[in-house]
Amino acid sequence: MPVRVVVDSSACLPAEVALELDITIVELHVLNAGEDRSTSGLSSLELAATYARQLERGGDDGVLALHISKELSSTWSSAVTAAAVFADGAVRVVDTCSLGMAVGAAAMAAATLAKEGASLQECYDIAVDTLHRSETWVYLHRIDEIRKSGRISTATAVVSTALATRPIMRMSEGRMEIAAKTRTQSKAFAKLVELAQIRAEGEPVFVAIAQNEALEAAKQLDALLQAALPEGSSFMFVDVDPSLAVHAGPGALSVSAVFAHDLTGLSTGKTTSK
To answer: SUPFAM superfamilies per the record (predicted)?
Structure first.
């Protein structure tokens, strides 16, 4: 049996892609209902049980675990604790420093190699390499939810509200930071396209657009990116996971992209190629 790949639901992997590549998804916790929703990371007991089941399925080949950035959730530290239960490094936990489909893409790449009989080390290496070649930008239609979550400073929130800006956030060293401030959705989309073009450097790109109650806007952004990015690029639509939607709010969109030479495993029935 091949190496088993485990992610949490913040990776935003569509169920059919996970099924196709035999990736296990563990759901993060969304607490309460209505406007007071919050989130909770996975416990070490939950993850140890998941890893044990996957080790039983995979035999001696091991488990590769990819979870949301340790700067944003307690899940990573729980995963490290859970992995220590198993002898001989049977479970490897990737320090992703990311979230969303950047993590999902790394899992897809690793799972593709695993199905071809790759070792745990080889799967780990391609996951880390994919993450290093990825970028994630998040367009916030409003900042109320992320302000409440503490993911941006009070000063930034006050200025953004006063100026009616719609910020573009970027994952940097595991944290969310402001990449650009725009006044309208159209200007935000133009900026996202510019950022992706610059980073692509003329090479094909894998792009996953995640949307939260913003499907039509996501289609508009997809059309702009397809027109701007190089031939050979591929594109995927996904939904923002509820654990992330709590903090991003309605209308939020994210663009997760993998750049450069190797797009192994990043072409499934869910993608469209340019």
So the answer is: DAK1/DegV-like
CA distance 35 to 58: 41
Ranges of beta strands (E only) in 16-87 are 23-26, 29-31, 38-40, 63-66
- Residue 138: is it exposed, middle or buried by C-beta count within 10 angstroms (0-12/13-18/19+)? buried
Burial bucket for residue 29 (CB in 10 Å: 0-12, 13-18, 19+) = middle
What structural domains and CATH numbers belong to the chain? Answer: 4-132 (3.40.50.10170), 134-273 (3.30.1180.10)
Q: How far apart are CA 52 and CA 70, in angstroms?
A: 22
Name the burial class of residue 163, with classes exposed (0-12), middle (13-18) and buried (19+) by CB atoms within 10 angstroms of its CB: exposed
Number of H helices, E strands in the chain: 10, 13
List, in order, residues 6 or more apart from 226 with CB less than 8 Å away.
233, 235, 274
Rounded alpha-carbon distances, angstroms, from residue 237 to 54, 187, 220, 230: 28, 21, 12, 18
Three-state secondary-structure class, residue 27? coil
Q: 28, 42 in Cβ contact below 8 A?
A: yes
- Count of CB atoms within 10 A of residue 131's CB? 20
What string of pLDDT tens digits covers the 274 residues of the chain?
699 999 999 999 999 999 999 999 999 999 876 567 888 999 999 999 999 999 998 777 999 999 999 999 999 999 999 999 999 999 999 999 999 999 999 999 999 999 999 999 999 999 999 999 999 999 987 665 555 555 454 444 444 443 447 889 999 999 888 888 888 999 999 999 999 999 999 999 999 999 999 999 999 999 999 999 999 999 999 999 999 998 888 999 999 999 976 676 786 555 666 6
